[in-house]
């Protein structure tokens, strides 16, 4: 976190093709930050194991694509949850009820995506094995 007493200068605005590369750099920085979260690393490991499982049970391309979309949506929700936590920690360094609610709601969103992904994986694997 940046110390509020020593503000960093605002970066210059980038336009044109350079904006595309700058945005890609911001996205990579976000991924690097997200990788510091143990929950995200666990989710990546679980996703890899699910894809391996789908491969060994002979899942179709469509089933792989649906799983990939669910995994990407989980990453999106995890990234937004981490952003909420960073902002809440910055704005409210001391414990507060609204801060707790914000973090709990972000955690709920991640849990819902994990359940949806797990349900899809379970139903898909069972439907292939028991057909």
TrEMBL record:
Substrate binds at residues 39-43, 78, 107. Gene3D superfamilies: 1.10.287.3610. GO terms for cellular component: plasma membrane. Its main location: membrane. Pfam families: DAGK_prokar. A divalent metal cation binds at residues 37, 85. CDD domains: DAGK_IM. Its EC number is 2.7.1.107. ATP binds at residues 26, 37, 85, 103-104. It is an enzyme of class 2 (transferase). Keywords: ATP-binding, Cell inner membrane, Cell membrane, Kinase, Lipid biosynthesis, Lipid metabolism, Magnesium, Membrane, Metal-binding, Nucleotide-binding, Phospholipid biosynthesis, Phospholipid metabolism, Transferase, Transmembrane, Transmembrane helix. InterPro entries: DAGK, DAGK_prok, DAGK_sf. The chain crosses the membrane at residues 38-58, 105-130. Mn(2+), Zn(2+), Cd(2+) and Co(2+) support activity to lesser extents. The active site is at 78 (proton acceptor). It catalyses: a 1,2-diacyl-sn-glycerol + ATP = a 1,2-diacyl-sn-glycero-3-phosphate + ADP + H(+). One of its GO terms (molecular function) is ATP-dependent diacylglycerol kinase activity. It comes from the Bacteria. PROSITE patterns: DAGK_PROKAR. It is found in: Cell inner membrane. One of its GO terms (biological process) is phosphatidic acid biosynthetic process. PANTHER family: DIACYLGLYCEROL KINASE. This is Diacylglycerol kinase. It comes from Roseovarius litorisediminis.
């Amino acid at each position: 976190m940046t110390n509020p007493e020593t503000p960093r200068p605002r970066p210059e605005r980038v336009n044109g093709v350079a904006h595309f590369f700058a945005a890609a750099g911001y996205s990579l920085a976000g991924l690097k930050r997200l990788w510091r979260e143990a929950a995200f690393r666990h989710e990546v490991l679980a996703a890899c194991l699910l894809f391996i499982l789908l491969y060994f049970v002979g899942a179709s391309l469509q089933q792989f694509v649906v799983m990939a979309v669910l995994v990407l949506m989980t990453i999106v929700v995890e990234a937004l949850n981490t952003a909420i936590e960073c902002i809440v920690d910055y704005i409210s360094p001391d414990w507060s009820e609204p801060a707790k609610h914000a973090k709990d709601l972000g955690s709920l969103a991640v849990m819902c995506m994990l359940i949806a992904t797990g349900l899809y994986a379970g139903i898909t694997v069972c439907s292939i094995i028991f057909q």
